Amino acid sequence: MFQYNIVGYARVSSREQAENFHALEQQIDRLESAGAEYVFVDVESGANPERHDYNKLIQLVENGAIEMVIATRWDRLTRNELVYLQLKNLFQYSAVKLKLLDQGEVDLNSAFGELSADLQALFAVHERRMLKERVCRGFEYKRKKKSAWGRQPWGYKSENEKYVIDRSRIICLLSQRPCNYQELSDLPNNSSLLVQGISKGEIAREAVEFFLQVRKGRDVLRYLYEKYGVSSKANNNDLLLTSQLLFWRSGQSFCEWIKNPVLRGHTAYNKYEPRNAQKRGNQKPPEEWEIHENTHPDERMLSDEEYCEVITIIEQNSRTMGTMDTRSQLTGLIICGECGGKCVNKNNQKYRYYGCRNSGIGCSNKKQIRLDFLEAKLFDVIIEKAHQFNGVDSTFKIKENPEDSLIIIKLKEQKQNLEKILQDHYNPTIKKAIDDLDLQIKKQISHSEVDDFSLSSAEEVLAYPYLTHLGFWYCLNTQERELIYHKLIKQIVVVDGEVTTIELKVNC
Question: CATH number of 6-142: 3.30.1380.10, 3.30.1360.170, 3.40.50.1390, 2.102.10.10?
Fold first, then answer.
């Protein structure tokens, strides 16, 4: 339970953090000096209301669990006019005080204090609008000059607003180390006696050439990870965003990189849909990009002929990745406990398995888990949780009793007639027919009722009584299991072929 009376809130945008690395640290220090016992922190746009620590802070204010909130300015709390109005109403009707270090203590209970707060917030919103205009004008200017735009693809950097191959040396292999390396330890790094090392550009070109040979993105990653000693860990940042010697996180991300127009000497603009306050717009299809050709022809890493071969390889691989017959209902829900990556479905002639997509290319979690073993464990967990909900009042109601349907009534009549015959004279064939009818009845009940789950919450699904019966689960087909799984399961963590955690979407 939260036990602090005075809390602070600090926020910087990603752009502010990049321009001034100590900006966030300075805010936190000021807030703590002003009496904040705990500081909530976000690195996110002030126009986005869906900030992790911001929402935690708002919940504490709503619950009256704190006495005062301290921030440096209004724009640290929000740059969104609608969110400001909600925030103002929240502080007006709660007993929590608000103090802004650069603008004084906020008095929202008087007309003048409210006007002052409105003007301060209005200036924050106005500043954001001006910033957006400057960014748009800057974008149009860069596009007119055909300048490098956005984050450079791996292996490139921007010089004089043009893309150039990154030729700065970043690593030396042990195999290149001279025999007398200990005698050279005191020499400066730029000494001609030292091995100069390998650049990102050289490694990127090496990746292109190896891909054209092996024709698989995962094989390229495996080769690079082993050669340069890179590993994939769950606490790493995006491997493409770091300046260290880290490569692509998956074969798919490598394929997206190798298709980038920059590698062919072109510059692409308008790659994304318009951004809203919550998130960046989705990426448009490549045919809708605005591409300016030959903006840096002397810095090409991929020829036109090689690019055509790359596209052919990727299309061939995508056609053989899988079919509807190999679809598995748990895809997207299973997480590798070693690297944090998603586990993918891997089949052989007899069984289906799930394994880490990064196994063998930086992740040591190589052992797979059989789907039937995983589901057996999952059934136990869901059945145990469903027992807790059994008998609890729920708004989930079956629209009509499926056992009253004409099909099920007829099946039950057939079963009863056969049971009477079996009482007089035992016959294995009749016994098997009764079992088959019983299974058909269960399937009819299961299929008719599972359809009602599509609009139900996880709690409502768990309150359904048949979930506590193991036989119910084995009567469901793949699509019905998938519906229930994605309603109930938040994630499943697997390590070394064993399930370590099953997290459901319920609160109790």
Answer: 3.40.50.1390
